[in-house]
Design goal:
single chain; alpha+beta; Phosphorylase Kinase, domain 1; ATP binding; Kinase-like_dom_sf; Prot_kinase_dom; Tyr_kinase_AS
Length: 397
């Protein structure tokens, strides 16, 4: 009897809770089966699923290098036809013809309902399967944030929604695949730290202004449109137009436009434990007290950027400064810009009433940025000099 796929047969009952298959050791081995079921249908809509195997019996999906030659989208949040999604290799790098984003991503994903796929132009996309009833809130929120009116706003840092493939039970949202989290790039200069933080605060303030609370801000849910194998990746974020985007709105809440943010409350445990605010209950949360939601997002964001700064310090201490430079940007930041860390600490204040709003934090971030001496804010072409020379120059200002 031939195996039937969508739309000729329903998804088998044992796969119905698709998004939770990887959460149970008894079903984790089934994570590929729902994708196999929808694979012919998605192919008919122009999406070729990417498979990665480590055996000779099941070959991986061949690399399609055509998209590596596309120029990077001028507006990363509104990529046009035949524009690339991420910064890859410089055009002068001959290895661009043999390798690319695929060499390090392996098309591996962190959840069962997320899969990489090629679109009709051979660009790598991320497909996320959302149940039409269980995930209705997430579908509606990402659709709203990608409406023409919202997408036209420069401070909207939600991952672009390229397409929606809708079936009776499931909606597949199609997004550009941005491969690097906010933590996995080493800033070249102090300006990069402010550029990255300002983008994140701007995007969060935008969501809050429109009644949306993310509730799951984490390192893995804030992505950059850059591949870490880029030659010169340690150059300025701003000069390369490297963008930051929020993903995964599965925990998000939406409140009526114009309502008082002071009334936006929630209960129970939501989000990523590593970045959860202290007012969020741990353990059994059935009888937890309501808490104010916007400060929870602000706390998580401060926690993510504190963790990223610590990771960059550890990385440089372990492997050396980028390009063998005598002084890394994080060293300059720590010594000459104490206000940056102080802002993150205020965002993580244990008392939620003392945390700044996302908009207030953004204003403070930009004000501090504007007060910096150019010799501290921007690195010269060869990188920052020895820290002792910077100290001497700073004392003369």
């Amino acid at each position: 009897m031939p195996v039937l796929f969508y739309p000729d047969a329903p998804l088998p009952p044992h796969l119905e809770y698709w998004e939770g298959l990887d959460l149970d050791n008894n079903t984790a081995h089934l994570v590929d089966e729902p994708w196999r079921y929808f694979e012919p249908f998605l192919a008919s809509r122009g999406y070729t699923l990417c498979w990665k195997y480590y055996s000779r019996e099941k070959p991986e999906t061949p690399i399609r290098p055509r998209a590596l030659k596309y120029p990077v989208a001028q507006d990363p949040f509104r990529p046009r036809s035949r524009e690339g999604f991420v910064h890859l290799f410089d055009n002068t790098d001959q290895s661009a013809n043999q390798t690319g984003i695929h060499q390090t991503t392996g098309w591996l994903t962190q959840c069962a309902s997320l899969k990489m796929a090629y679109d009709a132009q051979d660009r790598v996309c991320a497909l996320k399967a959302l149940h039409n009833s269980r995930s209705r809130a997430e579908i509606d929120i990402i659709t709203f944030l990608n409406s023409p009116k919202m997408r036209a706003c420069a401070d909207n840092h939600t991952i672009p929604l390229l397409d929606k493939v809708v079936t009776e039970e499931w909606t597949f949202i199609v997004m550009p695949y941005w491969p690097r989290s906010v933590q996995t790039c080493i800033p070249w200069e102090v300006e990069d730290y402010f550029n990255r933080l300002a983008q994140a605060l701007e995007g969060l303030a935008f969501m809050h202004r429109h009644g949306i609370v993310h509730r799951d801000i984490s390192i893995g849910n804030m992505l950059l449109n850059v591949h870490y194998g880029v030659p010169g990746v340690y150059s300025s974020f701003a000069r390369r137009n490297i963008a930051l985007a929020y993903i995964d709105l599965g925990c998000a809440c939406r409140f009526p436009a114009g309502s008082d943010p002071a009334t936006w409350v929630g209960t129970g445990y939501w989000g990523t434990m590593d970045h959860a605010a202290p007012e969020i209950p741990r353990g059994d949360s059935r009888h937890s007290q309501p808490y104010h939601l916007p400060p929870v997002d602000v706390y998580a964001l401060g926690s993510v950027f504190t963790r990223a700064l610590s990771w960059e310090q550890i990385y440089c201490k372990t492997f050396g400064n980028p390009d063998g430079l005598p002084t890394a940007a994080h060293q300059v930041l720590r010594e000459f810009v104490p206000g940056y860390v102080a802002l993150l600490e205020r965002m993580k204040d244990p008392d939620p009433t003392r945390r700044p709003t996302a908009f207030m934090a953004l204003q403070e971030c930009n004000a501090l940025r504007d007060t910096l001496d150019p010799s501290i804010r921007f690195a010269p072409p060869g990188g920052y000099p020895e820290i002792c020379h910077l100290r001497q120059r700073s004392s003369q200002l």
